[in-house]
């Protein structure tokens, strides 16, 4: 072991001296290899960024990994039990789906069915009507399929009533204003936090501050207190459930926009989940209808990202092979120039394995230097992107260079060094001692 260790050390020392003595050829080898190693690092980095971007979008819409969620009936009894069970718990929240129209009363909203404002008619109950001139437009229909009131200055929203702060489960990015304050006394003027799609509608249309909710005793006057990015293309507003309860004698959920009641719990809130199950069953809800699951958004995108990663790694491998060919070409030329040196070393007793190790050490060190340069360039680019674009894209905030990309770069550099130096190393080891006599 000591003898092998000494040969390895000697090969590294002599290989380093060879690199220093032939700076131009080393630079040419690094240039030919740089793009290949950089491609491998960029592919790995891109895969990590793509996973982070998709995971960030899924967290906005679905929730963070590990969160326990359940979908229950939105009847009044289920809503009451959920509110009582989760009251005052910071690690749980219930989300009640409601329908709301803000604007003039007894008119059809500009976006029937809470459709996106650039895609009218995407949601909801409507039909297309054309006049004698050939102009077509969407007409809202009521629950019975009868043409609704005339269009007017009103906007329809998906209204989510919350019993607690949902941002611990769905990390909404604040765009403007404030979030809901659950510690204050419920107001008779419900505070609303709207998403960016809803903000687009209120910026485009001027509507009165009057909100219609099915089942309300009167039309309350809402207050828009903030705007968030929730990753949802449907106009959506978030409100406190207790503030909506001031106007709704019996809170119930459901309608056209999703499940009636959604419960989200922290992984540590198992006692709340069990208590909720027991109370629901005691109230007559069948046990098989009470189902909770753990959110695992990363698993959803893992297979898709893995496929794209292997495809692009294959393309990067082709670029890396071009770099390997460059190192091989330079290595063969270098061995050809050093035939007399290697023959003399053989004549004074240098083993063939050490000669091969010297050549391999040069190519391996070249590959490692190139990998370090490519990794450093990508790390600097990641830091710059996070500093410049972190405020615009959530997945770029507090971004650090992933260690997986660094490891991939080092492995690519080592593999390229071995592949590019193997044939020159074998040729150097086979140089006969008699060559020194001919020289």
TrEMBL record:
Q: Which GO terms describe its molecular function?
A: transmembrane transporter activity
**Can you name this protein?**
Putative ABC transport system permease protein
What's a Pfam family this protein contains? FtsX
User: Under the cellular component aspect of Gene Ontology, which terms does the record hold?
Assistant: plasma membrane
Q: What is the membrane topology listed in the Swiss-Prot or TrEMBL record?
A: Multi-pass membrane protein
Main localisation: membrane
Alphabetically ordered keywords of this record: Cell membrane, Membrane, Transmembrane, Transmembrane helix
Q: Report whether Disulfide bond shows up as a keyword of the record.
A: no
Identify its protein family: Belongs to the ABC-4 integral membrane protein family.
Task: Decide whether keyword Transmembrane helix is in the record.
Answer: yes
Which locations, inside or outside the cell, does it occupy?
Answer: Cell membrane
Residue spans crossing the bilayer: 27-47, 307-333, 354-385, 405-429
Provide the ABC3 transporter permease C-terminal domain boundaries: 315-432
Task: Fetch the InterPro entries from UniProt.
Answer: ABC3_permease_C (IPR003838), Macrolide_Exporter_MacB (IPR050250)
């Amino acid at each position: 072991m000591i003898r092998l260790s000494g040969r390895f050390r000697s090969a590294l020392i002599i290989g380093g001296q060879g690199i220093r003595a032939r700076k131009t050829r080393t630079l040419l080898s690094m240039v030919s290899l740089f793009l290949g190693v950089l491609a491998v690092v960029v592919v790995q980095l891109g895969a990590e960024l793509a996973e982070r971007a998709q995971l960030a979008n899924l967290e906005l819409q679905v929730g963070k990994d590990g969160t326990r969620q359940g979908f229950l009936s939105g009847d009044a009894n289920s809503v009451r039990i959920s509110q009582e069970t989760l009251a005052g718990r910071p690690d749980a929240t219930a989300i009640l789906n409601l329908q709301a129209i803000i604007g003039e009363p007894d008119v059809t909203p500009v976006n029937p069915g809470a459709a996106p404002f650039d895609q009218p008619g995407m949601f909801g109950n409507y039909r297309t009507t054309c006049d004698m001139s050939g102009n077509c437009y969407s007409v809202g229909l009521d629950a019975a399929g009868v043409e609704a009131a005339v269009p007017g200055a009103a906007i329809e929203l998906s209204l989510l009533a919350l019993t607690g702060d949902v941002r611990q489960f769905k990390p909404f990015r604040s765009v403007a204003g404030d979030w809901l304050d659950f510690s204050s006394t419920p107001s008779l003027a419900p505070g609303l936090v709207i998403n960016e799609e809803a903000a687009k509608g209120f910026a485009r249309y001027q509507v009165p501050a009057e909100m219609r909710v099915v089942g309300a005793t009167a039309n309350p006057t809402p207050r828009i207190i903030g705007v968030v990015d929730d990753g949802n293309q449907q106009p959506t507003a978030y409100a406190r459930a207790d503030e909506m309860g001031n106007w709704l004698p019996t809170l119930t959920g459901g309608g056209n926009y999703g499940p009636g009641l959604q419960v989200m719990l922290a992984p540590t809130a198992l006692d709340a989940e069990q208590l909720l199950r027991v109370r629901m069953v005691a109230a007559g809800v069948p046990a098989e209808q009470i189902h909770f699951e753990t959110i695992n958004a990363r698993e959803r995108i893992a297979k898709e990202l893995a496929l794209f990663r292997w495809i692009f790694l294959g393309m990067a491998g082709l670029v890396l092979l071009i770099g390997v060919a460059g190192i091989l070409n330079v290595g063969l030329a270098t061995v050809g120039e050093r035939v007399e040196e290697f023959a003399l070393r053989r004549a004074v007793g240098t083993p063939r394995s050490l000669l091969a190790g010297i050549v391999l050490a040069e190519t391996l060190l070249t590959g490692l230097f190139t990998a370090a340069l490519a990794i450093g360039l990508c790390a600097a680019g990641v830091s710059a992107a996070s500093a410049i674009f972190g405020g615009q894209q959530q997945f770029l905030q507090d971004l650090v260079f992933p260690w997986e990309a660094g490891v991939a770069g080092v492995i690519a550099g080592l593999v390229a060094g071995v592949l590019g130096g193997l044939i020159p190393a074998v040729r150097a080891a086979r140089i006969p001692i008699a060559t020194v006599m001919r020289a």
